[in-house]
Structure formats: C-alpha cells, structure tokens
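Annex B. Sample input.
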Amino acid sequence: MGQLFTETKEEICADILVHGAGVNPDFTSEVQDLSRERVAGCYQCGECTAGCPAAFAMDLTPNKVMRMVQLGCEGPVLSSSTIWLCAGCETCAARCPRELSVAKVMDACREIAMRKGIKPKEADVVTFHRQFLADVERNGRIFEAGMLARYKLLSGNLFNDIPLGMKMFSKGKLSLVPRKIRGLREIKKFFTKTTR
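Annex B, continued. Sample output.
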C-alpha cells in the first residue's frame, strides 16, 4: 500500500500565499535582474534540493524557493533561513538540467533582504556574511583565524568554539598569518564595482 501524503507547514503556507495576499509580481523580475538567472525556466525537478549539502537545515527547500520566486512570494522568501544558509557551492547549478544556479538566486534574495532591512532568523548570519566578504576583499581569500576573531567579537559569541579552534590549530588547519592571493588588485576592483 502507498504512503499517505501529508503537506508540511511550509507547503500549506505557500499555497495560501499564492491564492491570497503576500504576492509581489515585481519580486520575480527583481530577482531575475540581480541574479541574471531565468527563474521561469525552473520546472521543479528537485535536483537542486536533492544535491544541496545544506538542504537538511533549510526551512524552505531550494526548489521551493525557486517556485516561490516564480510566483512572487517575496515575504516568505526574504524572511526565510534558506537564503542565508545557502553556501553558494553551486552543486545546484551542476545538477540542474536547465543550467540554472539557485545559488545566484539565493544571493540576489539576500541582497534584496538586506536592502529592505529584513532581518534573518539566525541573528548573527549577517555579521558572519559581512566579515567573510570583508576578508575576501582584504586578502583575496579567507584568513580563517582573523575572520572568526572579528566575527566572535562582533557577535558576542566568544567562547563556544574554542575547543574546535584549538584542535584545528594543532592539526595545522588554521594559520596565524594571512596569505594574500596574486590578483588582489582585480579582486579590489570587483568589490569597488559591485558596491557602487
């Protein structure tokens, strides 16, 4: 006998939003313009979600975010944890039969959320995001020890990772000195161009 199908809370909410209030038709084109991805091309095969290493922690699956962006469900997408939990690894793009990058769509949604002042559910995720990008701008790559020290100071969450940090340091996984990449000038130009 087949399994009984039950909808999750998110699926029910998505259906209510589509049939009622909370739809912004301009949201779809705003995301498409920022991400340069043709969101309408997604036909919900689920390959992005199946391959996503962070999907287990997301409140909306990647394919559901794509569907909700297609339908203009701005509020639930921009206030979701999913857009902040996306690691940008591009596994979704590698698996997508339509050659779409859900990671670029998530990045566009993060940018819109920040611009509109929508706070993520995870309190310190924006602090981490900003410190990560500042480190890339400064060095062309991440200097883990420095970035984490700044993040810990700004978030006030100072001591919970010390045992893990010590273990990583003892195994040579954390450097005490930042290394800069060769084309740092190009990276700085990129940051200057994108923050204008």
